[in-house]
Structures are given as C-alpha cells and as structure tokens.
Amino acid sequence: MRRATFRGGIHLPGYKELTSNSATVVLPVPDKLYIPLSQHIGAPCAPFVNVGERVKKGQKIGVGKGFVSAPVHSSVSGTVTDILIMEHPSGSFVPCIVVENDRQEEWAESVKSATDTEILSPEELRSIILNAGIVGMGGATFPTHVKYSPVEGRQVDTVILNGVECEPYLTSDHRLMLEKPEQIIAGLGYIMKAVNCRKGLIGIEDNKPDAVEKMQNAAKANPGISVVVLKEKYPQGSEKQLIYACTGRHVPVGGLPIAVGVIVNNVATAVAITDAVEHGIPLIERYVTVSGDGIVTPANYLVRIGTLFNDLILQSGGFTGETEKIIAGGPMMGKTVFTSHIPVVKGTSGILVMQKKTGKISAEYPCVRCAKCVDACPAFLEPTSLAKLARRRLWKETEDGDVMSCIECGSCAFICPSQIPLLQHIRRAKQAVLAARTLTSAAQ
Amino acid sequence: MTPIKKLLQVTSSPHIHSTESISSAMRDVLLALVPALLVSLYFFRVPALLLVLSCVSSAYIAEYLCLKAMGKQTPVKEQSAVVTGLLLAFCLPPTLPLWMGALGSAFGIVIAKHLFGGLGYNIFNPALIGRCFLLASFPVAMTHWITPIDGVSSASPLGMLKESMEGSLPSVTQLLVGNVSGSLGETSAVAILIGGLYLWYRGHIDLRIPASFIGTVFVLTFIIAMVNGKGISCPLFHLFAGGLFLGAFFMATDWVTTPVTKLGRILFGIGCGSLVVLIRVKGGYPEGVAYSILLMNVVTPLLDRYTKARVFGREQRNG
Questions:
Q1: Are both A248 and A186 inside the same structural domain?
Q2: Which among A16, A370, A372 is the top mutation candidate for probing chain B, defined by the most B β-carbons within 10 Å of its own β-carbon?
Q3: Which of A72, A242, A303, B163 is the most exposed place for a label (fewest CB within 10 A)?
Q4: Does a cis peptide bond (omega within 30 degrees of 0) precede residue A223?
C-alpha cells in the first residue's frame, strides 16, 4: 500500500531503538522543583503565591494576563521557598517559583473527578482546558484553549492528533501511544467536542507499527476517529506537512490550520486534556525522552514539571565521555542549553546529551548547486538561493523568495554536502524581514 | 558522574548533519565511472590508460596551481578536478597524443573553472570546454578513431551515419557493449547506465535530466526516421552511438552547471536532446552532445529563474 506523506523532506537516522522498547519510568520526585512562570507562547504569568506559603499539588501558582496565556500549577505539595530568575530551556531567563517538596502529595481542592463528562458543553471544555494550563506539548507550547476558540466564519471539520514524532532519538510520544492509548482517544474526543467537529485523525509514521496497532484498537471506542499511517519522513510532524499528508489540504502561506478547517494537537496534549476533563488534574507532569550518545542509560521518564535536567541525567546514569551539547528537544529543531541546571517545562519532549565528536568536522565549501536542499525543503523554497541573498543582505529579495514560509525544520542544513549553515542564513533573513514588516506596520 | 562545571556549547539547530560531503559525493562519481573505465581499458588498451592518466594528472596539477595562485586552500581537498579530468578523457579519441589530452584538461580547469570563480561558480562544464577547445584546435587528431582491441583506423558509428556508409554500421548490441570505434569512455551504453543508476541510487543525480534528454533524442529521431521511411534501428542507433549516454548521465547532470528546479531540469534535458538532434541531422558535425550541453549551460540561470516551484500553500486550490 502506498502510504500517505508530504512532498519534499529527508530521511534521517532514527536512533529511536535506544529508548523505544523500554517502558516509561516514573522519575522519583525531587526535593525541590523550579516551576517557570512562562511555559507557553504568549503573556507570561504573574506569581499567584508568596514566598513561605504552603501549596498543594495541582494548585494554581501563576496566572496569565491576556487571552493568549496559560496558568501554571504546582507539581507537588510543599512550601514556596523562593521566586527567582532562572534560565529556561528556550534560552531566555524567566521567573521561577521554587517549591520544596513535603512528600505529602496532597492534591489541591480544585482537583476532583468529573461525575459526568457527557454533559459538558464546548464552552465548559474550553474553560477546563484553560484552567488546567494546557499548552501544545509537541514543543510549540501554544495555549491550547486559544486554538479551540471559535473563529468567525470558520468551522473545524477535522481534528488531527500528531503522533508522528519525526525527530531522531525522541520516543516519548511513541511510549505514550503504547501506554495510554485510551486516554489519547478520549482526549481527542473532548477536543472534537470542544470545537464541534465529528472527524478525528491520528497521524502515525510506519516506523511505529506497534503504536499504530494500539491506537487502532483504542480508536474503536469512537466511530469518528481513525488512524492515518504515514510514510516515515522528516519533517512530517510539522503542522502544515501533517495536514497535507492526512487530508491533502494546503494551509495557505501565512495562514493557520483553521483556514482549511483543521486543528492539530500533539498526542501528549490529548492525554493532558483527558486528565483535566476527567480528573480535574492540571498539566503538572509529562513524558520526557532522555537519550543521545553522551548518556549512560537512555530512557523515557514520567517527569513532574519543574524537575531539573540534572536530576534526569543523574537518573540516567550520568554522562559518558566528554559532553559537548545538551539539547532540549530533538536534534533537528531542539535548542542547545548552556547548563543542565534548568527545569523541565510543559514543552520539553526530550533531553539529548551529545558527546564531543572525535572525527574532524568537514570545512564549509562553496555551494555546488546540487539542489539537495531544494529537493528537501518541505515548503518548496530554494534554501541555497535564499542563503546567497541573505549573505548579500538582500532582505527584500529574500522576502520575495518567500523566506517567511520557512518552517526552520533544518532539512536543508542537514543535507548540504558543502556544510553550508543554510538555516542560520535563512533565520537571519527572516529576522530582517520581520523587523522591516514591523517598522512598516508601525509607520502606517 | 562527572558534573559539568564549564558551560556547554550552544549552537543553533539542526544539531546533526548527514555524513555526506563534497569529497564523498566526488568519490561516488568516480566510483560510478569505474564500469565505463574498465570497458574502455579493455577495448582500447594501453593508449587509453595513458590518456586517462595524462588528463587526470594534468587536471589535478592545474587545480593545485590555481588554488595556490589564488591564495585558496591547498592541498586539493576534494576530487572534482579528478572527475573533470576523467570525464574529459572519456570523450576523447583513444589515439589522441597525450600532451593534447593534458592541455585540454588544464584548459578546462584553468579557463572554464577557476577563472570563473572555482568550485561551484563555473558556468560551463569544464570537461566539455576542454573537449571543445581540443576539437577546435586539433580537428584532425580529435576525429581520428580506431576500432576496439586491434586498433585499426575506422570511422565512428555516427560518422558513418553522417557519411551514409550505412552498410558498415555496427549492430545495436555492439553499441550497448561498447565494441565500436569512438571516444574512449563513451562507447558502452550499458557500462555508463550502470554508473548513472548508481549515482541516482546514491541520490546525486535527478533522473529527470537523462530521461528527458535521451527521451527527446529518441522521439525526434523516431519522427525523422518515420518521415524518411526508415525503421526503428535509426533512433536506437542515435541513442547508443556517440556520447549521448555519457553526456546525459554524467555531464548534463553536473550539479554546478545545470538547473536546481525540477521543471528546469526537464526543460534542460529537452533542450539538450533537441540540440543534439539538430546538430547531428542538420549540422556539420556527426556528434552534438558536447555543444548541446554547453549551450544549455548558458540558459541554466534563466531556467532556474522562470521555473521556480510554487511555495507550499501559495495559490493552491484545496480539493
């Protein structure tokens, strides 16, 4: 059978066997948790508690201002010992609430199981999702309730759950699909209800046949839901590429999925929604893959938000050899961090430790116009042409070349035999174009 | 566990890179040329070997001197000059004096490659420029052909066709194997096809170019044969005699001098194929592959400009 996929893209070495076959380990909860007040795209939260105050597990400790925001909750019961500025996996510095764990695991009063989820209206579902602090857990951390808010003149006809996990090394979503398929299906059902839509799809790549089977079995519970098996290729987990692979629809340039009647969420987000709707539990823990050639025992963990990277690395047996980089997320789109003294946040799908390479790194050559980047680009751009224009600071020309359609998947830079840092040049051009656009709109 | 005291290295994504490099790609091209090289050494013996060595070493030395003179990095780190030298040798008569081969090779590297900016910046295929330079300078030596193995002087198959010596034409099987007179490395269509398919398998060439190039030659010569009341043998002859396969798989797919867009590549192949037929049927030369590719090299920037792919999500209708 010919499997659905998108056009362009590349084949990557997976390295997934390091962690895909072992069951998720519940990480012992550390003594201190560092919970950032900003774990989403949008307005950061203001602290909702004071130093010295006792908090319960699942208690709201930070509230957002504005619509595009998501509250944060305490992942343990204990005492707030400090509110300090800390480094964040995104690279920025954000205020964090430090909670000393009293090991009582005492739930907040707000956390209680629902008696009947059938009677919940779309508005009530959206309000539950908002109050549970749920954000996109694939990494983008866009506040989920905002996605579900009705848009004038647009009706959602398909909700797609992203179970692609196309980044090498990462297997947290894979394990989640194996271990919590019913919760994923239930969560998708709630999303469909929240946006008044009858059709739900779950996109999974054919390199995870066990997950496909589990999800297909679980999907029998809801006749509106089916699994779409996709041909393994990177970056299939990118929103627009996934929508195309599952539905054949093109999200217009500069547009959102809602423009073609689709909403996409990660499978982990669906589980968080089920926890929130059925048990009133806010988003305080997630699956995290700890892997890479620089870690002794790669594994998947169920981790409380606010646990330090260090604690996870220690649990995995520590470093092998000399560590060069630690990546928050996958090796293609993740961010490197300066230190492991940073907390796991809602969008942390993986922590990769990369060893210092012994082999020499090949020097950069001129572009030989092999067009491998052109063939690889899932947005159908010409990365090499854009990079050449960016080098010459021809920002307007890069804009005409649709540089803003770049999804920064990194396929071009990965494949380039001349080792040209194509994506860095393109990012620079995007920054310049963005600044020029901001100036233009400010002048008007 | 050894705790990390110092700060880690921070870089922007992607954090992994494919194992492929210019050097590894050039090694693949050289490997792909091995079958044709072996066939040519079998059929044309020692003179062929010496000519190959002369062209390759001349290209390599010219490359080294150019890099040195222009203050670029030496020694030569990638083998593109070796590829150029080998490809030039492949499209020369096996009996060509060695110094001529060396001269053509150096001309291609110095004039066509480095004076245009070096690796990645040349407009024309350096090997083909070397060949055309030699053809213009030494027309007699460049059109002296010998039969395989016994090395007796003979016209090339396309030359025979041009001069209407149809009685002595070799069979299609002979052309496939390469057991005919002709340029050193282009006589065996099968050996070249094996190398070409290897390059495709390794992801280095887009079959759009050889397919549209060879397809166009076939269709046009087929039409001409039908109009003239001749059989299928004439178009097949045009496919397998001469340098069409070598040109289509190894020269028209040269990264630097051909389009980067998919539609551009198809148009490039069609253009090459049409020019080959035009030159062979209406022109003064029996062979036209080299000129057709060089002429299409000129329009590569135009093809790239006017065949840009439509960006994902731009003016698409949703079905």
A1: yes
A2: A370
A3: B163
A4: no
End-to-end CA distance of chain A: 54
In this structure, what token pair is assigned to residue A370?
Answer: 């092999």
Whether B291 maps to a domain, the answer reads yes
pLDDT digits (tens, 9 = 90+) for A292-349: 999 999 999 999 999 999 999 999 999 988 888 999 999 999 999 999 999 999 999 9
A284 contacts A131 by C-beta, under 8 angstroms: no
Q: What is the least distance, in Å, from the CA of B269 to any CA of chain A?
A: 16
Cis status, amide bond into B148, omega within 30 of 0: no
pLDDT score of A356 more than 90: no
Q: Which residues of B are less than 8 Å from A251 in CB distance? A: 313
The confidence band for A2, taking pLDDT boundaries of 50, 70 and 90, is low
Query: Is-contact A239 A408, C-beta < 8 A?
Result: no
User: Which residues pair with residue A135 across a beta bridge?
Assistant: A143
Pairwise CB contact (< 8 Å): B312 & A378? yes
Confidence (pLDDT) at A362 = 67
Q: Categorize the per-residue pLDDT at A93 as very low, low, confident or very high, splitting at 50, 70 and 90.
A: very high
Compute the count of residue pairs across chains A and B with CB atoms less than 8 Å apart. 162
Domain that holds residue B120: 25-306
Cβ atoms < 10 Å from Cβ of B6 = 8
* Domain membership of residue A429 as a residue range: 372-443
Question: Looking at chain B, which residue has its C-alpha nearest residue A6?
Answer: B312
Token pair listed for B215: 């397809």
Local confidence band at B182 (pLDDT 50, 70, 90 cut-offs): confident
Confidence band of A42 (pLDDT split at 50, 70, 90): confident
Task: Provide DSSP, A204-264.
Answer: EETT-HHHHHHHHHHHTT-TTEEEEEE---BTTTSHHHHHHHHH-PPPPTT--GGGGTEEE
The answer to whether residue B13 sits within a structural domain is no
Same domain? For A75 and A87 the reply is yes
Q: Touching check for B19 and chain A: CB below 8 Å?
A: no
Residues B277-314: tens digit of each pLDDT:
999 988 888 889 999 999 999 999 999 999 999 999 98
Total tally of structural domains belonging to chain A = 3
Distance CA A441, CA A241 (A): 30
Task: Tell me the nearest-neighbour CA distance from A182 into chain B, angstroms.
Answer: 32
Strand pairing category for A78-87 and A32-36:
unpaired
Strands (E), chain B: 145-146, 153-154
What pLDDT shows up at residue A361?
Answer: 63
Given CB atoms, is B120 within the 8 Å cutoff of chain A? Answer: yes
Nearest CA in chain A to B11: A336
Number of Cβ within 10 Å of residue A107's Cβ equals 16
Q: Distance of CA A276 to CAs A179, A284, B299, Å?
A: 18, 10, 62
B3 domain-assigned: no
pLDDT score of B318: 45
Task: Read off the tokens for A311.
Answer: 């604690």
The verdict on A259 and A137 lying in the same domain is yes
Q: Which residues of B touch A381 (CB under 8 A)?
A: 311
B118·A408 Cβ contact <8 A: no
Check whether B114 has a pLDDT greater than 90.
yes
Indicate the pTM of the whole model: 0.92
CA distance B274 to B268: 10
Give A201: exposed, middle or buried? Use CB within 10 Å, 0-12, 13-18, 19+.
buried
Which residues in chain A have Cβ-Cβ distances shorter than 8 Å to B256? 368-369
Residues in chain A with CB shorter than 8 Å from the CB of B258 are: 369
Cα-Cα-Cα-Cα dihedral of B197, B203, B204, B206, to 10°?
70
For residues A213 and A223, the answer to whether their CB atoms sit within 8 Å is no
Count the domains in chain B.
1
Of B256, B308, B313, the CB nearest to A255: B313
